[in-house]
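Expect chain and fold; thus:
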Amino acid sequence: MGYKFKVMGWVSAGVLAGALATVSIQTIARGSLEPLPLEELQQLAAVFGIIKTEYVEPVDEKKLITDAISGMVSSLDPHSQYFDKKSYKEFREGTTGRFVGVGIEITQEDGLVKVVSPIEGSPADRAGLKTGDLITRIDGTAVKGLSLSDAVKRMRGQPNTQVTLTVFRKDENRSFTVTITREEIKAQSVKARVVEPGYGWVRVSQFQDQTAEDFARKLEELYRQDPRLKGLVLDLRNDPGGLLDAAIAISAAFLPENAVVVSTNGQLPESRAVFKASPEFYARRGPDPLRVLSANTRAALRTVPLIVLVNEGSASASEIVAGALQDHKRAVIMGSQTFGKGSVQTVRPLGPDTAIKLTTARYYTPSGRTIQAKGIVPDVMVDETPEGNLFAALRLREADLEKHLSTTNGTENPDPAVEREREAAREAARKKLEEEAKKPAAERKIPEFGSPQDFQLQQALHKLKGLPVVTSKTQTERTEEAQPAK
């Protein structure tokens, strides 16, 4: 019996080796890489066979192969990833800004789900949910104890299905239930308003399919409200990035036509490119998303005094925008040094429902600076509160991630003293955060972005008005520490 299982295992291993050999042939056909080494392929096939035949319990062959692929890809860097059917669907939803749910932006407060705002026209909006509402139960399940992602999963689902929410409304001191029918939701990644007479605020929370068009529409509305805007604040704080086309389009709204926005460089010829502020570089999949801007608004955007707010959470596409506007001296960058994700990921489908996201190039600003593991250093460093950057120590940057692409030779270990100092700062910040969480929302030190209590926004407005700015006394430019050799 044992011999029979062993034969079956090696047959399976032979099939795997054959499949890998096919991949190698396809790789040669692409004309970009050398064939995979046969000795290592044989080892992989041998390990597959041993696990299949000798592991204590039967193992699913497909899972073994997908786990091998996942491990192979994830070992490269923090941003390369294998997508199975579920994760690929979620990834595509994230880039399109469309998903099926009730249509609310949420956060967590005291273990409950708090409504930040209902998306205009969504099922939640029509059902009467308001900013500040606390969701205590989802389909009868208590929210307390659930993670925010678990709560989101319970509220999402298939179109035309229903979810029942139990809601506590503080200002009315009452609880009620509401049953909402799920629909496809288009998330809003752009907010804009006149924050003071003559001064506008535009926030981009993520770069998605519709972001550039939504951005143009919001800007047009802003200039309709106040045609003589004296200054504009572009808020990219905590914007994790997204689609390159959207970043180029938003940069193009403020730059002269054909100004260089970003360049990329990688192993494949197609990964070596220069992208400019012109529709041919950002409107390749459809009409120009900036077409809704009137001629007057377009002209105004090229000259209006501009501040860009960034922080440690500003990454990738948001760093491209900040870097382009900084290099062309089109804007003053304020806030904290950005995340430092200066790498390009390309999605390669493996079939109708699976894919790999692979790092294929590095980004460079118009002046040739690399963003990778360094980020954009603001022209004016400003803390998030008058008391300083209270919780910045808790925020990881690209240089903190294991296996990140390095801009150094990576042959030295990080300084242990620096690591100890950083861990002590993180522990102090954790304690402060716990204390803050116990306070009522109105008394917490870090208010909502765009609110009158937003310290960094107020400093940006001061800069636009020519008033004194309270700059950071503690922030310094952070360079990449060398990593251990891989």
